Amino acid sequence: MTVNPSGWRPEAPSNDTDAAPTTFTGNKALMLEEALLFEIGSIDRTGVDLPEPPRVASRLNGLERNRTIGLPGLSEPEAVRHYTRLSRQNYGIDLGFFPLGSCTMKHNPRLNEKMARLPGFADLHPLTPVDGTQGALALIHLVGEWLKTLTGMPGIAMSPKAGAHGELCGLLAIRAAHEAQGDARTTILVPESAHGTNPATAAFAGYAVESIPATAEGRVDLDALKAKLGTHVAGVMITNPNTCGLFERDMIAIADAIHAVGAYLYCDGANFNAIVGSVRPGDLGVDAMHINLHKTFSTPHGGGGPGSGPVVFSEALAPFAPLPFVEQHGDKYVLVEEETVAEEHHEKAFGRMVAFHGQMGMFVRAAAYMMSHGADGLRQVSEDAVLSANYILRSLDDVLEAPFGASGPCMHEALFSDDGMAEGFTTLDIAKGLIDEGFHPMTMYFPLVVHGAMLIEPTETESKAALDQFIGALRSVAERAKAGDPALKAAPIHAPRRRLDETAAARKPVLVYKDPPLASAAE
Amino acid sequence: MRYLPLQPEDRQAMLGVIGAGSVDDLFVDVPASARLDGPIRDLPMHQSEQVVERQLTALARKNQAAGDQPFFLGAGAYRHHVPASVDHIIQRGEFLTSYTPYQPEIAQGTLQALFEFQTQVARLFGCDVANASMYDGSTACWEAIVMARRITKRGKAILSGGLHPHYVSVCKTMARFTGDQLLTSLPSLDGSAEKEMAKLIAAVDSETSCVVVQNPGILGRIADLSELAAACHAKGALLVAVVTEPVSLGLIKSPGEMGADIVVGEGQSIGVGLNFGGPYVGLFACADKHVRQMPGRLAGETVDAAGQRGFVLTLSTREQHIRREKATSNICTNSGLCALAFTVHMTLLGEKGLRDLATLNHALAVEAAEVLTKVPGVELCSDSFFNEFTLKLPEAARPVVRAMAEKGVLGGVSLGRLYPGVEALEKGLIVAVTETTTHEDVQALAAALEEALA
Asked: Which residue among A257, A275, B54, B241 is the one 20 to 30 A from A461 at the CA level?
């Protein structure tokens, strides 16, 4: 494949005149092409100045590197321009509406960034003697108290690194609780509509996974669940509100049925934004739930992370929460690590999930967000998120099929299917059409229980004008898909790239840059 | 409520379109007993930006920030100077506020940066390929053990005594639930890298899935992994190498070069900062032939419909959103933005900068070791080291560290903190020296140590 080797001049001929750049550079005004670092940098160029090191006798045990590593550098102006140009090929919330269902792409306040960069938090080593970390431990404790209060649950583990890691934490606590009673259970039940992380986590924790069907109205089938329950079931993972955007009406009955066989109810808290400040999961019988701070509490997604996934626990599971954790003793904060376990009677803690203490930088951001909103603001968050989703659902259900539209109001996500599109037109075409309209598409093909699912989560941080513009754009694209507009199959045509060939990428993976033979010979 | 754009009249108009009388009608599916009737009590109400800033700044001031005094802490988290432009780039909204690049046509910035990251990590570690990041070094380490189990279909992993004790704890915690067998041991103050290698070589057998070895080890010693790699391969086992200080690879041979099959690490020291332990960035690299057993996301090169080069997430049939319970891992969100910080910093360094940085770190550490071993009763335990070494004090190190901290010197990490209750290690003090350390800092540490031991 010799596509664009220099990075400057796209060379592959195309029959499609829309696609062929007509400029010398391949740039289109503000849309700038950018080569790979490995095509523009060199190994003797650098963007840092360092002092001359003192001369010493090496203590490296004779293991000095004697070959070129192959790490090109750039001067600072080149590096800043390289990554700034790349940034402009990205869509972000700062730029526009990002209704990715299940992902809660809400505005990321810059106060949060500023606070996380205070030297007392950002330049603090995790193994600093605890007397010198009282402010940091107080902050972790503070965020934990907020989360416990908001969920109505008494226990917490702050260390999990992201949502899926939180799921793992919850399931390990469940497993430890069963094992403490000599009860070796084997199975976790997961609804068909669950996030992929749920079954993957259950398997990672060493459990067998069985799935529970949904009812025609998009909720957990309580009778089917009861039929699957037994003393082999360790726990059930329920997402509430669920991935169809609906509240599990029978949640209390579900919890009772699960508890009746001695199993635990794990709640996937990815959709907590729909109920934060309005409903406490602890009042629904939940035993463990992770909270994605990068969703509900607005720590930025950063192109795929970092996240943070603290887990709240019921009374029954709280003693099994992993190390480390923070406790308040009078006006002092104590970090409970391995050595304090016995003396503090935390011997049920199931172990340690990470080096150090979790995502401190994310805790600071979440704290700034919670304190800014307060109890009243967070309640308004869930109300506005739910209102906005219902507004989208009812503004578009005449043009798009809403499979559960008759089930009543949705929560914070509106779900549509690709029913009624012209032959050969799919959800993918609608998504790519939205890109040309200047929007990030909704979540596609998830949940799996709906054909060609389009899951739209507007969040509470969009104005009515922004929602109206999106509704107009999606209506227009959906009408084109229904009419079978062939131009839609070519979308996007205005993005930095046309549709990318994912099949080719997977068939013959190119995962790292390989220097062309000539260049490496010249080195 | 400055983050909420909807106005009362907007809400009324929207309810009209929905056909609902009030927002309460939209929560009709919530059992009445669980719907709160007002803001949760016991929590404060909303506050201005200025008030929040004041409160959080007050908390931040109660911490001993590394830059405020002579500072020598390491043991898996290192303080390096991060160029200002790194933070500028990662705060650009297009990177900061973007999502996992599921729509590649409008995520080429993230995808190309990840492709660059993967290439940098693979080359640094001496491996064919690297993934788009893990949570951190400790979780990457466990994932490597799970991956080795899948490849070798064996369930016994041997962990070197030089592996960071928190990493060992994470693996032990997980193994307790998955049924993997782990052989662990403690480091020794009077050991050597060679003795540790010999011990591991003797332990590898035909039931071993992998040997996990950290280089440099927790006490700072640097080992030649070549013979261990050969011993592993002779028994059909894999060698997993762990790197907690990637700057070291500017100067010492990469684990891949020495025969490691999977190399994982903590990328924090390049671009990310200390952050009291997180977020950090897990690095994960391996040989081409094992790529389909790898956990985590991968960016790959392809072409678009017009023939232009572009990048996508690829080989996702390994991952949870496709394979569910058969996935190679449950990881979804990783450390994207920290990976970007790593890549921007590494690009600013370049090979020359990385080598110079590593040389400077090593030279300053050698000098510091010479000064500190002149303190009466203090011995050097690391026969070899990069920018971190272990001292043996004449008494338990943990109280000494606390006493020095009270006098304004953060003098290192005591082994008592890392290995509570292990008497044979309690006199050990791990001292890290980087380009941020000055000669005055070293003198201050020597004086503080002498005073504390007097």
From this structure: B54
